[in-house]
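FIELD: query
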Amino acid sequence: MLVKSKNKADHMVNLRETFNGLRESRLKLKQEKCSFGIVSGKFLGYMISEKGIELNPDKIQALLMMKPPNNYKDVQHLTGCLAALIRFISKSGDRNLPFFKTLRISLSSRR
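FIELD: result
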């Protein structure tokens, strides 16, 4: 769970509402898994900062280190990695179409 606000006053209100909602739902948080007052950090594989959601540099590095795909499984792996970055790639559908066509052709030839 992530609670993000524009300023400290709003943040206190947002936290209060969040905690009230958790209390009403009888949900508990583990203190050792909670962090408060963090300006930026990784959350669900993304970098969260004052600017908003940003690309995780580790994911880019993993993609750059990948070898070119040689078989069906490699193309599957590549499309999976690209899917995680889709929101940051303009016209990602057009750019990824050749990979998906390759998967479709390969899958139909397997049957």
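FIELD: remark
Residues 3 and 15 are 7 Å apart (CA to CA).
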